[in-house]
Amino acid sequence: MSRLTIYRDDAPETKLLDTDRPRQIAETLQPLGIRFERWDAPVVPPKDADADTVLDAYRPYLDGLMGETGAGSADVVRINARTPDLSALRDKFLSEHTHSEDEVRFFVHGQGAFVLHIDSKVYSVLCTQGDLISVPAGIPHWFDAGLAPDVVALRVFTDTTGWVAQYTGDEIARRFPAEIPDKAAA
């Protein structure tokens, strides 16, 4: 289940908002320039489907999104126990960073949290199957899919050089670990 939790950046123990209502999540994030929406595809491809099958299943949504944003292409990324150097990859994701282009992700399977640091607040957005999130360029954030990730996601981009992370050096991500529910309970 999708979830948005907001904290002051100096008070990780105090939640300012905690909601699992997709509409409220979208309405709360929209003024910050963050796009959050649910896509209800008529067919969800199997977790092990090849990239073309996954892209074809979401083609109408992708074409519409790319037409709106000017993004040029999309691909499929998988993060799971078979991902090479998973521990090192997770460490990189867990360091606060920015990108020079919007980071657009759609969760086909699994879950992961984008944690955003904006104007002295921390916005932890747990995305699950069917969620689209677009984090604007320049917003400090980090990502976590948990200790045992099992994610299939679409990445939408204009220029892959925009994906290169610019690390802020702030250790804030250590104070705000993402809350990733146990898969059995999700």
TrEMBL record:
It is an enzyme of class 1 (oxidoreductase). The record marks 105 as: Important to generate the dianion. It catalyses: 1,2-dihydroxy-5-(methylsulfanyl)pent-1-en-3-one + O2 = 3-(methylsulfanyl)propanoate + CO + formate + 2 H(+); 1,2-dihydroxy-5-(methylsulfanyl)pent-1-en-3-one + O2 = 4-methylsulfanyl-2-oxobutanoate + formate + 2 H(+). Its EC number is 1.13.11.54, 1.13.11.53. Binds 1 Fe(2+) cation per monomer. Signal peptide: none annotated. The record marks 102 as: May play a role in transmitting local conformational changes. Its cofactor is Fe(2+); Ni(2+). Pathway: Amino-acid biosynthesis; L-methionine biosynthesis via salvage pathway; L-methionine from S-methyl-5-thio-alpha-D-ribose 1-phosphate: step 5/6. The record marks 96 as: May play a role in metal incorporation in vivo. GO terms for biological process: L-methionine salvage from methylthioadenosine; L-methionine salvage from S-adenosylmethionine. Fe(2+) binds at residues 97, 99, 103, 141. Catalyzes 2 different reactions between oxygene and the acireductone 1,2-dihydroxy-3-keto-5-methylthiopentene (DHK-MTPene) depending upon the metal bound in the active site. Fe-containing acireductone dioxygenase (Fe-ARD) produces formate and 2-keto-4-methylthiobutyrate (KMTB), the alpha-ketoacid precursor of methionine in the methionine recycle pathway. Ni-containing acireductone dioxygenase (Ni-ARD) produces methylthiopropionate, carbon monoxide and formate, and does not lie on the methionine recycle pathway. Monomer. Belongs to the acireductone dioxygenase (ARD) family. This is Acireductone dioxygenase.
